[in-house]
Amino acid sequence: MTYNFPRVPPRSSLAIRVLGTYGGSAPGYRMTTFLIDGETALDAGALTESLPLAAQRRIRRVALTHAHFDHFASLPFLVANLAGRESEPLEVAAPAPVLSALRAHVFNDLTWPDFTRLPSAARPTLRFRKISEARPYRAGSVTLMPVPVRHLIPGFGYVVSKPGRAVVFSGDTCPTERIWEVARRTRNLKAIFLEVSFSDTQADVARDSCHMTPRLVAEELAKMPPDVPVYLYHMKPPSLARIRREIAALEEPRLKLLESERSFRF
Ligand SMILES: [Zn+2]
Ligand SMILES: [Zn+2]
C-alpha cells in the first residue's frame, strides 16, 4: 500500500506568491501584491480580489512600499473584512511618510473609517507600525528591511529575508543606487523583483513619473549583484505588449517578465 503524502517544504524556505503583478487595473491585470509565507503581504493592490475570505483572515501584516493607489487599493476592503477578527490587529508596516499619507488621506473617517479605533480603541482592527532601514521589522517568519528608492513621493524597496535566503523588491523607482548597494551586500540573495512600468517609446512619461523602461532596466542591471535572476513587474497594462518586445530584444537571460500569478519557493 502506498501513501501519497503531500510534499512538505523545508520549514525555512521563503514562499512568495505573486497575486498582482501590474501597475494598473483591467480584467486579468491585478495590481501589485506579493504574499510572503501566506501571512505577510508586500503591497496591497489586489489582496481582496485575489484571496478568499479564509486566506484574508490569515494575513497578519501588510508592508507597503509607498502610498500610491495601485499599491494599497485593496487595503481598506481587507481591513473592513477583518473587522471584529478574534486576534491581534492587522499591522500595516511602512516608513513614517507612507503611514502619514495613509492616516491623512485614507483611514481618516472621511475617505474610509479610521479602523485604528474600530470596533474600539482598545481592540482595533488596524495598527500602524513604523519601520525603517535602521530598524528592520521582524515580521513573523521573515525580516523586512525598507530601503529608500527614487520615486515621485517617498518610496521604499524591501529586502525580505530569513536565515539562508533573501529577496529584494525594488518598489516603484527610477534609476537608483542605495538598494543596489544593499543588494550587493546581501548574502544568499535568491531573486530581485524590479519594476518596469513603461515602454522605451514612453521614456518621457517614465522620466516624469519616475519609473523604469526596458532600456533603463538594462542600465540598472550593471549595479546589481551578478547571477541573480531579475523578475520584472508593475507593467502598465496598456504598455505590456511593447515592454514584452523590448525586453525580449535585450536578450538578457537574467530578465524575466512576471506576467501572471506565480509562486516561488526560495
Ligand atoms: Zn505603482
Ligand atoms: Zn508609485
Plain-language structure description:
This protein is α/β, with parallel strands linked by helices. It has one domain (15-261): Metallo-beta-lactamase, Chain A (4-Layer Sandwich), CATH 3.60.15. Helices cover 24% and strands 26% of the residues. The protein contains nine helices and 14 strands. The protein has helices at 47-50, 53-57, 69-72, 75-82, 96-105, 178-185, 203-209, 214-221, 240-250; strands spanning 15-20, 33-36, 40-42, 61-63, 90-94, 126-130, 137-139, 142-149, 155-162, 165-169, 189-195, 230-233, 255-257, 262-265. The protein has a seven-stranded mixed beta sheet with strand order 6-5-4-3-2-1-14. α9 (240-250) links the parallel β12 and β13 (255-257). The chain is globular. The two termini are 33 Å apart. Bound molecules: zinc ion (ZN) (2 copies). Residues 23, 68, 70-71, 172, 234 line the site of one zinc ion. One zinc ion binds at residues 66, 68, 151, 172.
Nutshell version of this structure?
This protein is of the alpha/beta class and about 270 residues long. It contains nine helices and 14 strands.
